[in-house]
Amino acid sequence: MVVCPYVLALQQTGDLSRVYPAFRPMTAGIGSSVSVTLNSIIIINITVCYFLEHNFEGSVLLSFAARYIQRGWIYFKHSLYYVSSTENTWKDSREDCLQRGADLVIINSREEQNFIRELKNRTWIGLTDTEKEQTWKWVDGTTPTISFWDTDEPNSYGGNDEDCGEIYFYERENSWNDAPCDTKKVWICEKNL
Q1: Which of 114, 125, 186 is nearest to 154 (CA)?
Q2: How high is the mean pLDDT of the chain?
Q3: How confident is the model at residue 60 (pLDDT cuts 50, 70, 90)?
Q4: Which domains does the chain have, with CATH numbers?
Q5: How far apart, in Å, do the first and last CA atoms of the chain sit?
């Protein structure tokens, strides 16, 4: 069975916050000195079952995703996400994503917005109006079909050149903000599966 070694490997690392950021461990005592983390097995089994049941080449996709997850990527709804641990400009952040075979995150749904905003505060996303002021586009050239701008955003505050999009407040669903592209922030890459 291909699934078992993968599940056991993740279980042994105990680092499930990379796989599922909202993970809250729940333990149950067995005897007097042994405890088992229950949620980890359930969460991973759901992820593994999704790959195997919904993809023709499930084991190949599982192997592909497992390699990325082991390198710190997070799986959510048909995509893998990488959250940087350092800060960089929007342009350099995008270049880092491209070198990883991904791009800055494109948010296509409320569910994805809520997932992304809970990963990290003040992060670059793949939104920019550098080509034409106030015409916001994703890094793939598409116009947002749904938006989550904060109140009075985008605004090029104080006449500043704010041409790059960020998630500003993770506490609020409407958390997009325009910011100067040369400021340094952490960033989120997305790789579609």
Answers
A1: 125
A2: 76
A3: low
A4: 1-72 (no CATH), 77-193 (3.10.100.10)
A5: 23
